[in-house]
Specification:
Layout (H helix, E strand, L loop, with lengths): L48 E6 L14 H10 L4 E3 L5 E3 L2 E7 L4 E6 L13 H5 L7 E7 L2 E6 L44 E5 L5 E6 L6 H6 L3 E4 L2 H8 L4 E5 L4 E7 L17 E3 L29 E5 L3 H14 L2 E5 L1 H10 L4 E7 L5 H8 L6 E9 L1 E5 L5 E3 L5 E3 L2
Parallel strand pairs: 1-9, 1-10, 14-15, 14-16
Antiparallel strand pairs: 2-3, 4-5, 5-7, 6-7, 8-9, 10-18, 11-18, 12-16, 12-17, 13-17, 19-20
Length: about 425
């Protein structure tokens, strides 16, 4: 049966209902953009337990910065940034409930929401957001206990999106060194985490169950009745479209796979959209990683070329990266070699191999932070290979879901 897609509601038709936040003396939009709600129909009943399927591993040590789709789903429900950027690029309140623009847009002041606190009950202060967190082009300051200032190198008429970057998600260390303590409505600990599932709770007793596919086949999750599953597998998407009570929603193009190499000039690879099981297209639009000199990157000379076998390294936990690496290896007479997510990052930083497949966000709230996490400091040639996007498989009538600019799906506020 062919896949059925119900796309996000047109933003143009709803502009009147989705006004941007005020940029003078005001604050945010009163509600999330309706254009970013997944079309699932009316929610007839409120369930105290909602189940989300996961198709890849989740490592609490990575929180709050995700390295996979599964981690993005989980972390987005547990951890908060000062503001949130919805799928239309509109800034929505999160830890900060209102803001003011000063000095012709060079300084912005954000007021924390009343009652903001960590899972352990400790209040969130401006210092929790500011401590150790400034970056290229902006400086954070704690004006008072509940007011954060952002001073920009260049003025902006609109709210600086850097406040929505996952690098500014507020956490503190947990006594059991498992899940960092966050500020989100749901909380998780080592006691609520097993190899089969992660349970996250609220103070009022609501529960999110993040369930892994026990057999490794994500179709079993759908057959077992999960309420949400996000996938990049076209076959799984088509299977879901044949099931009753599910809506299949195409999410924004959120990821660009690139080939990173020390070799000048790079290599052109065509027709890679057909080489992967994910929904893919040729890369479109400008790339935030094209010039990283403002971030203090790309100025170092290339590392010495490896004298060993021509290898292309990729993340073994990423099926699309594996498929691309295999195709590129066949075209260039190289060898594709798998690495764990952390080991791949170390290898890219060292730059001793011929090439690397790296997955980059198409849009970065803080490009310099993203570049330092994902790309090498040495002068690399970066070639865009394909854009991909996930699909949300949503059980009708259970919950209202919304999607952010980075492609993260989560319960609507």
């Amino acid at each position: 049966m062919p896949a059925r897609h119900i796309v996000l509601v047109s933003a143009i038709a709803l502009l009147g209902a989705c006004a941007r936040p005020q940029t003078g003396g005001g604050g945010p939009s009163p509600s999330p953009s309706e254009a970013c709600l997944l079309s699932t129909g009316d929610v007839s009943t409120h369930s105290s337990t909602i189940t989300i399927g996961l198709t890849d591993a989740v490592n609490p040590r990575h929180a709050p910065t995700p390295r996979s789709d599964g981690e993005r789903l989980v972390f987005r429900h547990l951890y908060e940034t000062p503001v949130r950027i919805d799928c239309d690029g509109h800034v929505q309140p999160e830890l900060a409930e209102k803001w003011v623009r000063d000095d012709d847009g060079r300084r912005w002041t954000f007021q924390l929401r009343d009652g903001a606190q960590f899972w352990d009950g400790a209040p969130v202060t401006a210092r929790d957001i500011v401590f150790g967190r400034s970056g290229a082009g902006y400086t954070l300051g704690a004006l008072e206990a509940r007011a954060v200032t952002v001073t920009l190198a260049k003025p902006r008429d609109e709210v600086p999106p850097v406040l929505g970057d996952v690098g500014l998600a507020v956490t503190k260390a947990a006594p059991d060194t498992s899940w960092p303590i966050g500020t989100g409505r749901y909380w998780a600990t080592s006691a609520t985490t097993t190899p089969q599932e992660i349970r996250a709770h609220t103070s009022s007793g609501d529960t999110l169950v993040f369930r892994f596919a026990a057999s490794g086949d994500a179709r079993d999750l759908l057959d077992a009745g999960v309420d949400l599953l996000v996938t990049r597998d076209r076959a799984l998407r088509d299977y879901a479209a044949s099931l009753k009570n599910f809506t299949v929603v195409a999410l924004p193009w959120d990821r660009t796979y690139v080939f990173v190499t020390p070799e000048a000039g790079g290599t052109r690879f065509d027709g890679l959209e057909q080489a992967v099981r994910a929904e893919a297209r040729r890369p479109e639009g400008g790339s935030w990683w094209q010039d990283l000199r403002p971030c203090g990157m790309g100025g170092q000379s290339s590392p010495p070329a490896s004298t060993g076998q021509r290898r292309i390294l990729y993340n073994r936990a990423d099926p699309t990266a594996r498929e691309l690496a295999a195709r590129l290896a066949a075209l260039s007479h190289a060898v594709a070699s798998a690495r764990g997510p952390d080991d791949l990052g170390d290898a890219v930083a060292a730059g001793k191999d011929w090439g690397y497949i790296v997955a980059l966000p198409r849009i970065a709230a803080d490009p310099c932070r993203a570049a330092k996490d994902l790309l090498p400091a040495w002068s690399a040639t970066i070639t865009a290979l394909v854009d991909t996007r996930p699909t949300a498989i949503v059980r009708r009538g259970v919950a209202r879901w919304t999607v952010d600019q980075d492609g993260a799906v989560h319960l609507a506020p």
